[in-house]
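Standup notes, structure subgroup. Blocker cleared on the NAP input:
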Amino acid sequence: MKRLSGKKIAEEILSELRPEIEKLILNNIIPTLAVVLVGDDPASAVYVGHKKTACKSLGIRSLEFILPANTTQEDLENIIIELNEDSTVHGILCQFPLPKHLNEASIIDLINPKKDVDCFHPYNLGRLASDNPTFMPVTPYGIFQILKRSGVDPRGKHVVIIGRGTTVGRPLSIMMSLKGWDSTVTLCHSHTKEIRTICRSADILVGAIGRPKFITRDFLKQGVTVIDVGINKVVDTNHPKGGHLVGDVDYKNISDIASAATPVPGGVGPVTISILMFNCINAARIASGLPVLDM
Ligand code: NAP
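Run returned:
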């Protein structure tokens, strides 16, 4: 089984983006991402840290708004409104999940679609569904880049996705069924019957569930490519940090069946961040009247 290293692919993408940023900076355009983090969820703080590091390594200016867990909806909305109005800010990212008392959907609706670098806004998802996207949904497009850069052609293939979440599974199902991607897509969820049988017909199987090692070898047909989106922390008292990360796939026990698979960590996660950087560059280009880059 080939290990599809997302880390390597992310480095490749970042190195392709570097000259694009240099060109913008030469034209006095400093791509700028504003990151809003509410509360003290440790995993969210880690993700924000990774995004900040990626910005720094590329020369994208990043602004951080770290707000306490008891921030009100009104205060958060006022920050988003200010960032929408600030012409030096090209991308706005509000790290989810928000604390329970805050309404995520209203925040997504409020972000200016031209600064929606996560591609969560209904306008941008609508453009994707109508085959005319501006921004690409970050994790789905990251998955596409992993397939493309690993020589796995999804055209005409049966892609089975487990998980219909709005950030990964559902936009991925739309994207892979568009002309050009040309996959035949099956989207599974917790009410899907005979899920193992459906999965065993997949040429490409994607797990976006959030359940540790849910996808075992009996879900796979010989030669399948497996993409593991899940990030699950499992308690491990022997581990110095008290736990470790596993994906949705039982990675260690599929090597004689799958032809290729992404590991967790070091798979989809780093590529997702590189696509976020790609979207930041495109947001800066849109604000400057330049055409968006393709990849
Ligand atoms: P989500 O919105 O909670 O969606 C989870 C999906 O899994 C739902 O559609 C749910 O079905 C389905 N599901 C749950 N149990 C199932 C079962 N027993 N059988 C079949 N389907 C089942 O989650 P998400 O935001 O899409 O995230 C999914 C995972 O990806 C999480 O581990 C998250 O941390 C990870 N993630 C990783 C990245 C990355 O960059 N690597 C990015 C985003 C998310 P129902 O709809 O029927 O409830």
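Discussed briefly. The radius of gyration is 19 Å.
Next: hand off to the docking folks.
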